[in-house]
Amino acid sequence: PLRAEGLAAGFPFDPIPTQTDAQVHVPKGYVWDVVARWGDPLFSDAVGYDIAEGGPLQKSDRVFGENTDGMETFRIDGRQVVAINHEYVNRKTNLPAAQKGKPADAWDQRKLQNLQGVTVMEIAEQETGWAVAVDSRFNRRIHHNTPMLLVGPAAGHDLLKTDADPGGSRSLGTFGNCGSGKTPWGTYLTCEENFNGYFGASGEMQADLAPGYERYGISPDGWGYEYHTWDARFDVTQTPNEPHRAGWIVEIDPADPDSTPVKHTGLGRFKHENAEVVLAPDGRVVVFMGDDERGEFLYRFVSNATYASGEPTDGLLDEGTLYVARFDDDQTGEWLALTPETTGLTQAEICIYSRMAASLVGATTMDRPEWIATNPNAVEAYCCLTNNKYRGLRMNAGGGAMAVGGPNPRAHNRYGQIVRWRPHGKDYAADTFDWDLYVMAGNPTLYDDAYGGSANINAGNLFNSPDGMAFDSRGLVWIQTDGKDSNTGDYAGMGNNQMLAGDPVTGEIIRFMTGPKGCEVTGLSWSADRRTMFVGIQHPGGSWPDGAGLPRSSLIAIKREDNGLVG
Ligand code: FEO
Ligand code: CA
Ligand code: CA
Ligand code: CA
């Protein structure tokens, strides 16, 4: 392993056991409360939104959306603002039961579209806890029909042009909003992941575009949203280039509710998990990005220009070089530049078909890269490789081998691991690095081989499928899970999905929180005073959190009973 660097942070709480119930559990001395639930009004004209009925179309773009995911907090004019993703929508709970989740008309479709995307909202802490500041001037919903700009090297390219946008520079909506990022200049980044599932085809799919559709999972039936039945924009037979206008990272200014979100083509097109933005010593902007699909890649963008506080930021996320990682078995690695010289593709093609470009240069196929986070106390980055049941057994979607080895050391990887790399010269823009595995999840109560996990896994901290991840300001790494919560077989003793904290120096990992049965824990940020930790609960089961009626994905706040610092 890499030699320990930085400061051991120590744990300010005692670990808690696993749970299989329908509640949230936090350690002794901590309390939690709901901040906002799916359907809660952001504006007073949306009061009365009926959650038991799944809610009407009217005002569905004025409420907190469903299935929270990545989030970031902002201090703006002394107010606490949070920008938070709504990754996808549960069709069955949002449409009348008799329809079994199938939209019956264009209005059903519109309702589903309204409940996904992003919420920007002001929240305030009161005697009774944190609550949405209803009608705040910062409150805003961004959804599947919000106008966006397309900028960067691919803007205006033929592959981005449609009848509605012959210039290839303006699109509608953001899709599959998964992880998040925050720029040094105070904007929010929302990352488009499973955008492919919203598209379908009423007839033939254009043959020359087939390789791209195939690599990105665009299929005639889509994933059941049926948008293509009601809107030609989502029908690739009628609008073949529309899928190329999704799969990007989108920048949103949370301080200006009238601003137009911007899709940055320079950051590449794939199933983006999150965007970890750091600065190189010389001020260049470095963005680390995972592509969450079995056997896809880990990417890095390095800007041409440098960032300085107060200077213009135009082009910083577009003019630069996209790289993809190769991890070698000797625990070193290299960032491989994706350029016209290395790929034979044009700059715009590299942006639009980043996956195909990456396959051309010998990048390492990974076990589903999810969140990437950097350590505030050391120049090192961590990436959750959530799992990959086909490792060692199949090819990736581009025909690339998923050989066992390097940072993906187990065939049929059902538990996941976290890879860590340290750039040479303490420079995130350096092209070479050393790497190790911070942790390999596993089940040592069942296995004494690699499936038992690394040495820092024990009966007291079992988990599978690490996904969300963030460092707090003191240097603890918080790990959220999106795995199997059956608590049986290979997953015995792991309980519900959860959040753990890790010490990057000692490697020790202990459990902080467990979520309600059925949920995934995803999204983490802190209040400006660091006395509240905000956590997202996605797709809970049962009747959480209301105790009756439909389950509601929610943003929760976790505090210490003594109102002390929580990170
Ligand atoms: Fe939306 Fe890869 O998680
Ligand atoms: Ca995720
Ligand atoms: Ca996941
Ligand atoms: Ca999810």
From TrEMBL:
Annotated InterPro entries: PhoX, TAT_signal
PANTHER family given in the database record: DUF839 DOMAIN-CONTAINING PROTEIN, SLR8030 PROTEIN
Coiled coil, from the record: none
Name the UniProt record assigns to this protein: PhoX family phosphatase
